[in-house]
Write a structure and sequence with these properties.
It is a single chain. By secondary structure, this protein is mainly beta. It has a single domain, classed as Barwin-like endoglucanases. Helix content is 11%, strand content 47%. The protein has an eight-stranded mixed beta sheet with strand order 2-6-3-5-4-7-1-8. The longest helix is centred in the N-terminal third of the chain and has 7 residues. It is globular, with a radius of gyration of 14 Å. The termini are far apart. 26% of the residues are buried.
């Protein structure tokens, strides 16, 4: 039997932009992607702390150490600049493997989305 578990989590980052005219996705600082083990194109779930919105999209790599967190396309309607969000990805694992799996969870600085 397989179950879905949290694989990666970027806990509480500040939205730096919302671009309605982009094709879609969320642009995430490359340093945050690396630290959380999320890859470009991976499906991610977004939880908006400010308004309770929950939705999914896919990750796009942003400039490293820029702090960029931009929601693109239709997702831009679900956030505003400076909203605080949580970014989560999940993995499908065998039940026994899931019992010992340790997710990559990071807690960036909410002021500038840095890892320090």
């Amino acid at each position: 039997m397989q179950i879905q578990v949290v694989k990666s989590k970027i806990h509480r980052v500040k939205v730096t932009g919302a671009d309605l005219n982009y094709i879609g996705s969320i642009t995430i600082d490359e340093a945050l992607l690396e630290a959380s083990n999320i890859i470009e194109g991976e499906r991610v779930f977004i939880v908006n702390i400010n308004n309770g919105e929950r939705f999914d999209t896919y990750a796009i790599k942003g400039e490293k150490n820029s702090g960029i967190i931009t929601l693109n396309g239709p997702a831009a309607r679900k956030v505003q600049k400076d909203d605080i969000i949580i970014i989560i990805s999940y993995a499908l694992l065998e039940f026994e493997e899931a019992k010992t799996f340790k997710p990559w969870i990071i807690f960036p600085n909410e002021n500038d989305n840095s890892l320090t």
